[in-house]
Amino acid sequence: MPQVIEAEPAPLSIDPARTALLIIDMQRDFLEPGGFGESLGNDVSRLAAAIGPCRTVLDAARAAGLLVLHTREGHRPDLSDAPPAKIARGDPSVRIGAPGPMGRILVRGEPGHDIVPELAPASGEPVIDKPGKGAFYATDLDTMLRNRGVETLLVAGVTTEVCIHTTVREANDRGYRCVVLADCCASYFPEFHAAGLAMIKAQGGIFGWVSTSAAAISALG
Ligand code: C5J
Fold it and tell me: How many Å lie between the centroid of ligand 1 and the Cα of residue 163?
């Protein structure tokens, strides 16, 4: 049965049977010291605030029977899917593929590539490994969503202006309605988080809607 989710720029009617929760890159590499995020000079503690709200929405989505999908940014151990231009950025001693306290940085199979324990995928929840910032690039996410008849995405994760933005733009161009849950997202730069959300909902919702964990839980309940 359709439900209304409070959102900006306007409330949105969602059909839970055609809605999925997409949790983007809540990985140790971005949220914990010693990973990719810190290697780029960021204060990773800034992302921790999103874990609790993500968990509450994850619990509600599971209880409501929503499709839940998780993504992880990372590369093959031989780095054959990592563009040289991506690897070359930053300090050479802590670049993608370099050893760190959580294993090789941003490499699949390493401890740092794991999703944080609070948001660990449950059995049966698809985990999409993506080499880029957008979750649609070089993945089968679009196929999975279309096969399940998904039309609306509740979007959570990190970081707001990078992988959330890229993914929401990709999704919007593919015809999905994206509702970004503001408190379930975070950035190393609070001003980018605020601006990123403002851009999504401006101009009548130019490429999506912005809502909150509480509003999503209320709509799913
Ligand atoms: C970044 C991401 N920030 N998941 N990745 O490099 O946003």
Answer: 5
Task: Give nearest CA residue, ligand 1 atom 4.
Answer: 163
CA distances from 88 to 95, 137, 138, 204 (A): 7, 20, 21, 39
CB distance 159 to ligand 1 below 6 Å: yes
CB 96 within 8 A of CB 105: yes
Residue 96 · residue 82 · CB < 8 Å: yes
Cα–Cα distance, 30 to 37 (Å, whole number): 5
Cα angle 43-46-52, degrees, rounded to a multiple of 5: 145
pLDDT digits (tens, 9 = 90+) for 19-60: 999 999 999 999 999 999 999 999 999 999 999 999 999 999
Map residue 67 onto helix, strand or coil.
strand
At 128-158, the pLDDT tens digits run 999 999 999 999 999 999 999 999 999 999 9
CA–CA dist 186, 6 (Å, integer) = 20
Distance 72 CA to ligand 1 centre (A): 10
- CB atoms inside a 10 Å sphere around CB 90: 16
Whole-prediction pTM = 0.98
